[in-house]
Amino acid sequence: MSYKYAYNTRDIKFILKEWLPTEQVLAYDRYKDYYSLDDFDTIIDQVRKISEEVIAPTADDGDTIGAQWRDGQVYIPESFHKAVRFLHDNGWATSNLDMEAEGTLPLVLLNFLYEIMAAANPALFAYHGTGSGVVSVINHYASDELKKKFLPKLLDGTWGGTMCLTEPTAGSDVGDMLSKAFPTDEPGIYKLKGQKIFITCGDRDDMENIIHLYLARVEGAKPGTKGLSLFITPKYWVNEDGSLTSNDVQCIGIEHKLGLKGSATAALVVGENNNCRGYLIGNPPDEEGVGEGMMQMFNMMNEARLDTGRLSTAVAANAYWAAKDYGKERIQGRLMTNPKAGRTTINKHEDVKRMYMLNKATTEACRALLGKCYFYEDMREFDPDPERRKWAQGKMDMLTPLCKAYPSDEAWILTAESLQSYGGYGYCEDYPAANSTRDCKIWSIWEGTNFIQSMDLLGRKWLQGKGKLFAGVLGEIDEYLAKYKGNFPGMEQELENLEKALAAYREIQMTIGGFMGAGKIGLMPIYARRILTATAQLYCGYLLMDQAVIAKQQTEELAPDHYDYNFYLGKVLSARYYLNNVVPNVWHILEIIKMADTSILEAPIEIFDF
Amino acid sequence: MSYKYAYNTRDIKFILKEWLPTEQVLAYDRYKDYYSLDDFDTIIDQVRKISEEVIAPTADDGDTIGAQWRDGQVYIPESFHKAVRFLHDNGWATSNLDMEAEGTLPLVLLNFLYEIMAAANPALFAYHGTGSGVVSVINHYASDELKKKFLPKLLDGTWGGTMCLTEPTAGSDVGDMLSKAFPTDEPGIYKLKGQKIFITCGDRDDMENIIHLYLARVEGAKPGTKGLSLFITPKYWVNEDGSLTSNDVQCIGIEHKLGLKGSATAALVVGENNNCRGYLIGNPPDEEGVGEGMMQMFNMMNEARLDTGRLSTAVAANAYWAAKDYGKERIQGRLMTNPKAGRTTINKHEDVKRMYMLNKATTEACRALLGKCYFYEDMREFDPDPERRKWAQGKMDMLTPLCKAYPSDEAWILTAESLQSYGGYGYCEDYPAANSTRDCKIWSIWEGTNFIQSMDLLGRKWLQGKGKLFAGVLGEIDEYLAKYKGNFPGMEQELENLEKALAAYREIQMTIGGFMGAGKIGLMPIYARRILTATAQLYCGYLLMDQAVIAKQQTEELAPDHYDYNFYLGKVLSARYYLNNVVPNVWHILEIIKMADTSILEAPIEIFDF
Lengths: 610, 610
Description:
By secondary structure, chain A is an alpha+beta fold.
């Protein structure tokens, strides 16, 4: 009774049709005979309509009925069954990853369609989205035989998929997992034994079978992450004739969560009766006991990280638009700047507009960041030039930790601002804001906590390719500044802030480098979270400024009563707001880092008893 | 099954016995024959024990059973009845406000006892705490006759109390309320008609009667807040012989909330059958139609604002200590700074310590701020010198918006950090963190939203008494700096930051003054929220530094194996962390304000459709 779908797709169309060089993607062999930019509006509108009419009506069931577990089986709301089926049957889900099929949707578009759909019920997204990662891993790494066995039914949504990493004693610390795999007489088939927790859609009653990608250590392989291998481990074993028999995969319960209650977070026990089999993907551990599992899983994990950023952006943006709609109706108070005009709808109040603007600018920033990666994804997969594919992979490597952590950190703040804008009603579950705050909190944790993302950024991505890849990302901002400085009237202060932030960011890198050189290694993890945020703010500031070039020109060309005028004006104002109110944080954090405060490092843990 | 009470009272004892000049309060006539500082530890320990053993076991009932409404009556969990009764019967509740009684607890102590109790179940606090505000208003403003009629049973907890402001169409905009009062033939008695919502403990089944302080407009009085009057409006009319009969006060429902589910948030309809009577407090509206209601209600409101800051601090601190206890047991990963030491409990991880330190320093900052006000409260009530009473009131006026808004803003961030420190378990309701995030969100909204607090600060408190009162608050920091600069070894950088922040703050005031002078009035509400935060950070930075003077000396005098050494060390580290990582925000916000970005003000509301 409370969820409200209020999504607007104009910014997505802008990104795809006006900002990104999407034509380049559409020229790839995979797409060139099927799509032109002119088709995008229709497709997006159709998915917007499906999201409102098919998906959004299931959201309240997800939150109030939720996923339920009884006697070893998870039951998801009836309404979810129908909606998931609809999405698979109508080509809005995994079928687009079919490498044999023709006319599949470009990834850059598909990813944005997922955003539009996810906003309508983020818990439902798990049921039609998690299969994608499984398909992707099988596409990239499995033998033809395994592809033939598992892909068709994953692609048409007869079967679901999961990824199984976390164990009760091994979460962030995945290399310490206890799951074991034992070779059998059949080549490539192993017996598995272990326990997994926090498995999204780990069980469900709407699919004939569930294909788990299960991470385990082959007996005798190296300790740590290096020794892990990945196994296709179906809930039901698929016999030669296609019939299914139990594979000793038990769901022993689901978590009772703060939000996303429609999505089952399952605990699985495999091989309890010594009867669980899995297919090894790729090669067995080599002579040194090194397996291919983590590398393969990271393919899926990196996609899951983008998914996480997308879910965060979608939920925050929808919460904002729902709040904004409420603000049009709710009359309360007088304007500080014009009290004599009498009572007014709250959407005109200065501080309410501030809450909306923070939401608008930040979600647009996140969407721009993700859009870049979606574009690179198509390039990495389908560009004919292997050098360009590699280049695109490099860009994705750099941006993935930002895509995962920044939107999921901000969602907590942004949804709270949306909630606040309702006044007391925001705290009531009959209005949609409270639900959104609850849903979004997991995203700063799963798929690698945001601290892990920040250490990935500082400890790995800054240095990858001798630092050239990350320097290339910063170099985009240099190029932008070289092109537009002194050449973007009305945006002088914003350009100045971008330039100052870029210089400060480079100084942050040097300062951290200096700490490392001086053996002050502990200062890196202490500041890592704030540096990741600053990185995203700098890069997103550039992206919004880049979008503003197009938008500003439109505001100058269109009449103010043109139906699109306020969209473009809004884009310009988003950039101005973000550059003047958010991006200055980059040099602020530099100042803080330079103080090199060691209070945390010096603190014995006993002080926290008080 | 999930709530965990993990409160530590050492900082409270430090504030009361080592930092605040509490002896001054204990010398007042009201207390001097009854209490010495030596009694405080025993009392605090006793309340800590009661909180753990009597209150905390009710917390899960509050969240899982919650308050329920059936057929016009609110039912609260059975366990709440017993705990509330226990607190009243044992002198831990409203009885301490009995002006006729002897040996009541000093307010500065009582307020901290409430913190200790509130942390054990913040929803239950409403049932033994809301009566205090009603007692206080009656104490200050009601006739002796009304005092005699209502106080005894409010003081002994036979009756509960509420304050009734908000109406469906008048929340922040209280002056627009529609409730009406009509004189009757009996002097001082009015017929009331209206509807109120969001009334905390507006109905309950554990009390014989509920005394509502009901804000309404006497027919013909001025519009806006000036025309309002306040009425003692009991749920059951108290007849001359003490018997009770219906007073036409109906509870028509309660809200379904994100958190604080044990506390009933009621909608009331009064006078639906034209049969609700209330006693006017004080005088009827004067010839110009001006009533005394808002002034009287503000007495209660200001207390409720301190309560809100206290609840926020209590919940955040308890969530942090519960998280810290979990961190002692949970083994995961290796230290970045010492990976070879092998797997470790998570409480040693750098980023987990960062989360704890942010929580520790910020909750201590909030507690110090509130403690100042509790001290002033005793002074305002019981100091023999009327000039000093007035002076104390002035200090409270300045600090109240900070006490309400800063802890309630921070609680959302702090409880999220505590939740994050659990990893995935933090998102599961079987662990205590999720509940705390849900509980705390209302506090940035109720009792005047945090935007209202920030406008109160900038628009009213900065200017009150021609600006001298607020200048006096900043002057405390000048005095501190004059005393300790160059004279506090090891804290040089922290002192420098405090000085820089103070100068920046004064420049913020001038900058805003400049905007107002230039007619750029809209820039004030745009930056008000951030300025309030900066104000609290500056003042709290000073308070933590003031505490650090005492603590640092102790660390130098005590041996590191002394049982109290780590407490004092922790106080010093809190100050260092806060001054180096939080207080710099003051000059950061100055920089941002000086950019005078007008994007929000220029934005037509139509841009938020996209």
